Amino acid sequence: MTRILHLSDLHFGLERRSLVEPLLDRVNAARADLVVVTGDLTHRGRSAQFAQAAAFLRRIEAPLMAVPGNHDIPLFRLTERMMRPYRRWRETIAENLEPIGSVGQVRVQGVNSVDPMAWQRGIISSAQVGRVINALDPGCVNIVALHHPMQQRPQVDKALMHGAEPALERFERAGVQLVLTGHLHLWAIGAFLGPGGRPVLQVQAGTALCDRPGDRQNEFAVLEFSGPDLLVERHVAPMTEQGFRPPEHLRFARKNGVWLPG
Known about the structure:
Elements: E1 2-7, H1 20-29, E2 34-38, H2 47-58, E3 64-67, H3 78-83, H4 87-92, E4 100-103, E5 106-110, H5 126-134, E6 141-145, H6 164-174, E7 178-181, E8 188-189, E9 201-204, E10 217-226, E11 229-238, E12 248-255, E13 258-261
Parallel strand pairs: 1-2, 2-3, 5-6, 6-7, 7-9
Antiparallel strand pairs: 1-10, 4-5, 8-9, 10-11, 11-12, 12-13
Helix pairs in contact: 5-6
């Protein structure tokens, strides 16, 4: 059994301050084997916000890996965004923008999907896809973690990142089983499996801490892998309530190369 905890979109600088300690308590109580953070640690990529984010991450007791989000690079300082977009990330979070974590039967590969040239949209290149495919472990559940989603529901008004569709097709053919993303502040799991059963299960995280008007809740998820079975614990803290509710549970099983709910 391997437990992966998925956090995304912390947005320090616009964080829900009353939830910081309850979130940290929940994360540490989960006893995860690995915590994966899929970007937007900060709200505007400022030094003070990175210091807050780094202090929070240091208090997580499990091994941790993180990839940047578009909010983690400068928005208004165009010269810095073009020349040194990841300077503060590398100084405070990690030098490696595309880390790899392997625990138990699970292997997680990080991909930096931020595009400094198009601040919000994101991009995944053919070279990044090839790097992931070359490092897949056929004996593991292979997971890709990045900030920008690889598919979106029709009601989402943000543009899908450049290169998403061909990248997802290559991941499917090569044997990637699961993709962790954030960015939209909207939870979704299994939304793109389809009636025929897509081989890749996509988990789109809600925001763990952002206090932006319009966000209805904060949340994170724990994914527990046991053989072909996956148990997902979804921890939700509505904006109208104090703290987290008891976790919701969802189950998936992988049969003949396809994830099936229930």
